[in-house]
Amino acid sequence: MGLLRGVVTALLASKVIATKGLSADDFDVLDYVDPLIGTAKGGHVFAGASLPFGMAKAVADTSGENQAGFAFDTDVVTGFSHMHDSGTGGAASMGNFPIFAQGSCPQDDLQQCQWQLSDRSVSWDKKSVKARPGYFGISIANGVQAEMTTTNRSALYRFTFNETSDQPLSPVILLDLIDLPQSRSNGSANVDRKTGRLTGSGTFGPSFGTGSYKSYVCVDFKGADLRDTGSWMKNQVNASSQTLSVDNSIDSTVSAGTFARFHAPKDKKSIMARVGVSFISVQQACSNAEREQPNFDFEGTVHAAETAWRKKLDVISMDADGVSEDLQKVFWSGAYRTMLSPQDYTGENPLWKSDEPYYDSYYCIWDSFRSIHPLLTLVDPLSQSLMMRSLVDIYRNEGYLPDCRMSLCKGLTQGGSNADVVIADAYLKKVANVDWATAYEAVVKDAEVEPENWDVEGRGGLESWKNLGYIPINDNDTAGEGTHTRSVSRTVEYAYNDFCIAEMAKGMGHQADYEKYSKRSKNWAHVFKPDQKSSIGGVDTNFTGFVQPRYLNGSWAYQDPILCSPLLDFDGCYLNPEGHETYEGSAWMYTFYAPHDMGSLIKTLGGAKSFTSRLSYLHDSGLLYVGDEQAFLPVFQFHYSARPALSAKQSHFYIPSQFNTTVNGIAGNDDSGAMGSFIVLSMMGLWPVPGQDVYLITPPYFKEVSIRNPLTGKVATIRNINFDPTYKSIYIQSAKWNGKPWTNNWIRHEFFAEGGVLELELGPKESEWGTRVQDLPPSLSNYH
Ligand SMILES: *[C@@H]1O[C@H](CO)[C@@H](O)[C@H](O)[C@H]1NC(C)=O
Ligand SMILES: *[C@@H]1O[C@H](CO)[C@@H](O)[C@H](O)[C@H]1NC(C)=O
Ligand SMILES: *[C@@H]1O[C@H](CO)[C@@H](O)[C@H](O)[C@H]1NC(C)=O
Ligand SMILES: *[C@@H]1O[C@H](CO)[C@@H](O)[C@H](O)[C@H]1NC(C)=O
Ligand SMILES: *[C@@H]1O[C@H](CO)[C@@H](O)[C@H](O)[C@H]1NC(C)=O
Ligand SMILES: *[C@@H]1O[C@H](CO)[C@@H](O)[C@H](O)[C@H]1NC(C)=O
Ligand SMILES: *[C@@H]1O[C@H](CO)[C@@H](O)[C@H](O)[C@H]1NC(C)=O
Ligand SMILES: *[C@@H]1O[C@H](CO)[C@@H](O)[C@H](O)[C@H]1NC(C)=O
């Protein structure tokens, strides 16, 4: 089946009609996507219905760790809401204006129905949950089965009610002006007595950022005659009042809203609720729903969503012969999760007028620059282009590129100005239709002009950066305000950001800038302390030389090199004021972060052999957690010390041990699909070094995998010879690119841009392939 599948997908891809009767016709990629993976144990994956990059994201909201609304390891459902983020850390995100359905009120008395969130929390049936791309269904203990699907800007719910013996059906559907993070500062709700239309608006706060945003909703019903309407607050209901508002004198945790009550549904015991969402106005929320779902066609909407997802995923095809179903699901589900965010809010941005696309939920670029955007460049270059244009337009209108952005607000910066890496990556890979001159202006501004508040954009400590060449632990920065921690991780990230600017400068012919930023990119070495030792539990690790914090006067401060690793105070290194000098990772790990200058780094760490043993130790000792994105590149960095076989081995260690099909099958938060994209790129066998035109070659986890560029139709195929699905033969013995021997252990984007075949001959033992100095990936400084 695997082989046929690969062939047929390839045929379909080139618009040849497949012969009827082939068993591979049965292959539906959506059967291999499980949206429930990573919905427990802090994965925070959005489990509900969404289009690719869709603004509307409908799901049941549960009580507990509900960053994305629904989490599998919870007990009660509190409502159904229409906008979410996926996989994020920080606080719960959005979930504005939940609706909730009850089949009838006890004794037919409205006052006896459940209104406020704490009262209406209802347990849910784990076995009832069904999640597929574009569809989510769940049964809750009040006898309601809720199903949902979405278009780009509206959700469609189908509530099916069980009749209880003592009470005829007369369903009540309420709208609550609350949101998941309970951040509301004010809001108002209305109900139309004649039609039952519920509308709402409110001002809310972003989940990992500053400021506030306004949001609007519009709910229409179909399937039952309207009985009466009204408003409610806390647990008091008033059927004579059709409006309700709350201001900031009312606690943001208070539930309040409007409702519509119906006579028994006409057939199938179902009522449909169509919910339009908008960031512009109630009117636009209503018109979004009317335009996208004129007919309340549930099956049709599910079908359209499935078609949209198949179209996105069909650019990848493979021969998965011999590979377990589980591993295939891990792969496809990862690809799916990569395309939930950023979300397309074009036409929904109230902040400025522009004809450019507007994407939101870059949540956060610190997480997404390493693998999400490089993967989108391969599988969805059009969306990647629209996203890059949107970033440039944010710069035009807000003055800086974001590092993080959600709900129309500036999000918190975690390290460097890593949008510089995303922009450079897209530039080098020739992503189309981007205004590169303005993009270049934007990245140079990051490097040169410190913003007033560098917690939400740009970089802090630029004066020290320019004069001293590092961020001192006791920086006396007066140019802007920000959290004075992370001096070491910011230094190494700023250095790499400058390298990315240098690459653009070179490509655009800005020679002086190229030289300037190349020079600054070597600043990582200024926080390298050659005689620093590190012990674990009092035993010397026998590795010497680590990045360390430094004072303004040049002398060294000290941070235990294992601090901020899983072995020591792992949870103490976030954006808290006591967050230490390395962010979400140890000095041990950040010592490896010079992706552009590996020749020099390897020399600094004592040569290739010593580098290899140190990198192995990083992985084997428990110092590295693959659930944080900085761990991705070190999986493959053995390529630089001429041991590409060890990268393959390391990749197979993490997948599947840390990534599987269970509800907790993701290490850490998925971070808008970052973990998903790590899986996909690792399993396809070409790891992109973000911000460079470099892919490190390891064997795919499949006999063969192809990516078709959906804009040009060009197909790039990576094929294993001697493929072994038990993964004992994972070492490249030799390679051919389009039939010619290929000895570099890396390849350029040209392979994808032009299409072609990369053949990898595998064996059970490490070989000489890709191990000569001339085979190694590019480095600013020479290898020795
Ligand atoms: C409705 O009732 C049927 C039959 O008793 C039961 O199987 C089903 O689980 C109920 N649905 C809900 C949502 O409670
Ligand atoms: C949804 O939005 C995407 C762009 O983000 C667009 O390509 C697609 O056609 C839209 N779908 C519908 C049904 O309008
Ligand atoms: C709602 O709150 C926001 C933010 O606090 C404020 O700007 C706006 O004026 C308020 N609106 C109303 C109607 O009170
Ligand atoms: C219900 O709303 C009506 C109309 O706004 C109002 O006159 C009445 O006082 C309210 N009743 C209660 C109990 O608040
Ligand atoms: C920071 O402090 C040093 C040493 O006191 C001083 O030389 C330098 O001018 C100060 N820089 C700023 C920006 O205040
Ligand atoms: C480091 O070397 C010492 C002396 O050879 C040895 O006792 C110790 O076990 C080594 N440490 C580790 C972590 O291997
Ligand atoms: C450098 O500054 C630090 C922090 O103020 C101080 O502890 C140290 O003694 C200074 N070193 C020298 C050589 O002045
Ligand atoms: C699945 O992945 C999770 C998260 O990495 C891990 O904790 C768990 O042990 C894995 N389960 C299996 C059966 O491998």
TrEMBL record:
Keyword Signal in the entry? The reply is yes
What the entry lists under PANTHER family is as follows: PEPTIDE N-GLYCANASE PNGASE -RELATED, PUTATIVE SUBFAMILY (AFU_ORTHOLOGUE AFUA_6G13760)-RELATED
Residues annotated as signal peptide: 1-18
Which InterPro entries does this UniProt record tie to the protein? Answer: 6-hairpin_glycosidase_sf, GH-type_carb-bd, GH92_a_mannosidase_put, GH92_N, Glyco_hydro_92, PNGase
Q: What is this protein called?
A: Alpha-1,2-mannosidase
* Ranges where the Glycosyl hydrolase family 92 N-terminal domain occurs: 32-278
Report whether Signal shows up as a keyword of the record.
yes
Pfam families under this entry? Glyco_hydro_92, Glyco_hydro_92N
What molecular function does GO assign, one term? Answer: peptide-N4-(N-acetyl-beta-glucosaminyl)asparagine amidase activity
Which organism is this protein's natural source?
Penicillium bovifimosum
Cellular component annotations (GO), alphabetically ordered: cytosol; nucleus
Kindly give the SUPFAM superfamilies that the UniProt entry links to this protein. Answer: Six-hairpin glycosidases
Keywords, alphabetical: Signal
- Show where the Glycosyl hydrolase family domain sits: 284-764
List, in alphabetical order, the GO biological process terms annotated in this UniProt record: carbohydrate metabolic process; glycoprotein catabolic process
